[in-house]
Amino acid sequence: MNSWGKYITLTTFGESHGPAIGGIIDGLPAGLEVDEDLLKELMRRRRPGGTQLGTARNEADRVELLSGIFERKTTGTPIGFIIRNTDVRSADYEKLRDVYRPGHADFTYEARYGVRDYRGGGRASARETACRVVAGAFAMMLLRTAGVTVSARIDQVGKERCQERFNEVIQAARAEMDSVGGFISCRIDNVPAGWGAPLGDKLQSRLAAAIMSIPAAKGWEYGMGFEGCTLRGSEVADEFYTEDGEVRTRTNYSGGIQGGISNGNSIEFRVAFKPVASIACVQRTVNTSGEECMVSITGRHDPCVLPRAVVVVEAVAAMMMADAMLEARLARV
Amino acid sequence: MNSWGKYITLTTFGESHGPAIGGIIDGLPAGLEVDEDLLKELMRRRRPGGTQLGTARNEADRVELLSGIFERKTTGTPIGFIIRNTDVRSADYEKLRDVYRPGHADFTYEARYGVRDYRGGGRASARETACRVVAGAFAMMLLRTAGVTVSARIDQVGKERCQERFNEVIQAARAEMDSVGGFISCRIDNVPAGWGAPLGDKLQSRLAAAIMSIPAAKGWEYGMGFEGCTLRGSEVADEFYTEDGEVRTRTNYSGGIQGGISNGNSIEFRVAFKPVASIACVQRTVNTSGEECMVSITGRHDPCVLPRAVVVVEAVAAMMMADAMLEARLARV
Amino acid sequence: MNSWGKYITLTTFGESHGPAIGGIIDGLPAGLEVDEDLLKELMRRRRPGGTQLGTARNEADRVELLSGIFERKTTGTPIGFIIRNTDVRSADYEKLRDVYRPGHADFTYEARYGVRDYRGGGRASARETACRVVAGAFAMMLLRTAGVTVSARIDQVGKERCQERFNEVIQAARAEMDSVGGFISCRIDNVPAGWGAPLGDKLQSRLAAAIMSIPAAKGWEYGMGFEGCTLRGSEVADEFYTEDGEVRTRTNYSGGIQGGISNGNSIEFRVAFKPVASIACVQRTVNTSGEECMVSITGRHDPCVLPRAVVVVEAVAAMMMADAMLEARLARV
Amino acid sequence: MNSWGKYITLTTFGESHGPAIGGIIDGLPAGLEVDEDLLKELMRRRRPGGTQLGTARNEADRVELLSGIFERKTTGTPIGFIIRNTDVRSADYEKLRDVYRPGHADFTYEARYGVRDYRGGGRASARETACRVVAGAFAMMLLRTAGVTVSARIDQVGKERCQERFNEVIQAARAEMDSVGGFISCRIDNVPAGWGAPLGDKLQSRLAAAIMSIPAAKGWEYGMGFEGCTLRGSEVADEFYTEDGEVRTRTNYSGGIQGGISNGNSIEFRVAFKPVASIACVQRTVNTSGEECMVSITGRHDPCVLPRAVVVVEAVAAMMMADAMLEARLARV
């Protein structure tokens, strides 16, 4: 349940306020050069406290790689890693012990398991995405050997579409003790035609599933997306042509995928992230005894997940693409 | 690759113009009463030729159930089934043998496999969804024992949101030898709190993956969706309250899922379907030798997938929910 | 539950006395030439009624291949197939409706599922192995492209080790309304070093699991096996040497596998099959009401599974090796 | 590849001479009381240096539980754990850098991955079984709630079957710089009828696969095993009777499993372990350049794996049974 991927799998563990989070990356081919700088750079981009836009929690987020690497190359055996939780203030959460925070997983975890680690959101905390960034870094190292790159960016914050004003919109939400959502778009370049699979393992299914498992994601679309679906077929047909002997499409309404398989064009998708539910203004809720009460969430939280989610989207997409890259080796005799 | 589900799995096979399509449903609990009328009714709703809106292909779509049922109840062993392809006119496709149809999977299948069954779209044909409707019928029989219902409807056709005019919009597209897309929304009622799982197996991940594997789906959103993500956190907070001893939310921006797990409210999601790529007007494309050419797709095709996709969306969602229903039995000691 | 394999999967369905049994082979690479003669020959070897040693049931066992093949080659899409049950005499089983046959799965299926198809052993019938022979045939076609061959033979019948007397021993058991067990050994030749995987997916684990799922198998050993384990380390060390630039072992106590991975030597294993439980002499048992009663099993049964099990062992081993063959493509960057 | 189990999964990582080994246990139900004493006791039984029979390597083997436990109960989220490697003498292995040890996985790992961590056997080291003992401890905690117990014991050392002389036989092998193998038998008591599954997931398949993945295991048999298969059907029929309203068998040739499903009797199986390949006497082998050379393995090694393997067999069997225990919840509507 805590895993992603089929050929290269990531399994993660860890609660936000436990001793450590971590994971195991299994199935990575042997002989891959490990680029620790890339890993550090991605971790830095996701790190809380890294920007004035983010949470005040300051985690060093040092990744301890425990196995699967020998003389700076992967050995084909699983890569185990842990990240210690160092800046934990569980006391902040003591008062939330018996309260279900609106928009959070407190109630649903308890409904499912009959128990929950209430400190810092426990397992449901976005802190877990650090582990996916680790796996994403290794996925990118592999993709790089095929020339494939993944890059995401914020498309919209609230109703604002102008990049220069994103910061303002986020600061305004923070000032009003509120939060704000938006969209991230991602493109994957240089994917050769033929990655992916039909039916149950369509590339879009795997990307959608993995991306929708990022906390706060509420929607996923690719290529023409929702808006393009309001058009006529003649308006969104990706006509084929040839260029240097390669079959290409002139337009990319398909988003680089047809029938679940890459067509050689860039893969393009977009994700909607909700405004975070941890807001300081007072909200009505119920406690674990079923009594109605009021709550104001005063921990250290981002007013907007987007700035830190960009690298998580890239990492998660890279994991799925690296998986598809290996799978493509199995398609023909 | 041709499978869905974890506890109850469906694996399908079959090309559009082969002798038969079919599948195996594995993991269905024993003792479930088989409602053949429900199965027939769902198949009728998906059937080509069933309405004046759809393709002219007329398949009886008789489902032969070959195993796993004894004295009208499931036995716990796998249910194998086949549906013969009866109204096959492969000659229609002979001229497409060497041409990649724009917006279709012809090129990508060939890029991946080096070979393809060009007749009727082969494995990429939407005909395969008939198998998912069969599995969906059994999933609904199981869900019914828990009172859970799944119902979808067309929300928008092209830019039209008024139900009464959907037919007109589709006929207009057909008249102009064009096609039209749109949105389907789906709600799942009476799901108890606690179905689903964290992280890799979040309910939204599983629903998104399965729905995005339906041909022509280009986007998926749940709860507040893309539009809600442009709002402030204070505007979309689902405050908890209690009703008859049950914890409920007043609003449903969460779409019935929090942290990957159902919260007791209705699960609500929306899917965008593209206008079908099989259009009669002439398009530019390339052939398998890489030469540019023209193509006009004159087979029997729907101008709009939405009318027949409604029941497919329901079936696919039911499969995922039945899976989650079983999984919920494993959560506690 | 009804599946085998990880990269090439077989999922089967079907009860002994239902309309048909069948399966889906998924993951077979595209472009493999389909050798229908091989398939027929393997089916003939497994077929009941094929020899005077076997059951009197006479099934044509005609395999209908329904998909995944185009112009005599695999297309990469799943191969669905069915085998109709034609010579079914369910009346033979009517009297067994309420009786648990000793040594059979009647009681355990009912304990698990609360229901069972009592006709002909239902799903637990060895008839299901026909589906594995179909998959094994395709596996062999793939293995052949790498020069790998699989061959099994009867090693021992009862206490008899002399090939020439096996027939006599079986006929003697039949004459006495009894049955007899024995051993089958299997060798897989020309496997290159490097197939298999460490830990959870060791080659011996996968072979043992698949072979132990054949009805009546009671034990599995490879290389030195049980007997070799009574020796000293110095007696069973496989010393390495080189031959034509290849690393080889002089002896093969390892059975061709070290650390879960093939070492280039022949893979050799042995399976123990119990004497079939369907014997005509009167046995004590209980019925479904828990009352003690007597039973004599008078259907058409083999006095010994070994003659027909040889090809099943080959097929099942071939499936696992074909799986490992594909997996080996993923090991290195 | 480094995983076991379907409903409760264990994934492990770690090389013998890396900083740590560890794993993730996923799928364990919430609310299970964690018995750390049991965990410590099992670890102590497996620990090197624990007895005069074992290797001189002395690892504290302290298990750090990093997640999934809150207030001494499981929370339903994954349990991550690590065990630091403390007493590592990699220098012992420096001279083995370029040599393939006979009977070891050195050559096959390199054949597969093109690279290997030669220190201490790397990933192929039996040290990895410590992680399975951790998972086995949790499995036993769960099984205990159903009254199920797992107990293994040494049956035979070399050719010796008398318990009192096992120690002598092992010491004699050590004195002669040799090693010795033998058999371990295991019984699982109080398993209710109905655990397990037909076909691909038969209980015997899962037990055999998991047990055969323990280093040095060369054979697996259950119930009547190899020897019973030389008998007549009438000699090994497990006749049913009833006792206190429960269906039972008078004898247990079936080994507690029929058709892949438990029958309520004790599950009994036996494993053959080879004499360890690390022996001090000089052996011929080849090096990584393909040149023939001599090797004498002078690290710290057990002359016999059996004493420490007993608890590993119990742990691995417990994992599979706990998996089957959860699965049984899914069998009926």
Please give a structural write-up.
Four copies of one chain form a homotetramer. Chain A has 333 residues and is an alpha+beta fold. Chain A has eight helices and 17 strands. Chain A has a single domain, classed as Chorismate synthase, AroC fold (4-Layer Sandwich). In chain A, the strands form six sheets. A five-stranded antiparallel β-sheet of chain A has the order 1-2-3-7-4, covered by helices on one side. Chain A has a four-stranded antiparallel β-sheet with strand order 8-9-15-10. In chain A, a hairpin with a 2-residue loop joins strand 11 (240-243) and strand 12. The longest helix of chain A has 22 residues, at 306-327. Chain A is globular, with a radius of gyration of 21 Å. The model of chain A has no long low-confidence stretch (mean pLDDT 93). Chains C and D meet through strand 1, helix 3, helix 6, strand 10 and helix 7 of C and strand 1, helix 3, helix 6, strand 10 and helix 7 of D.
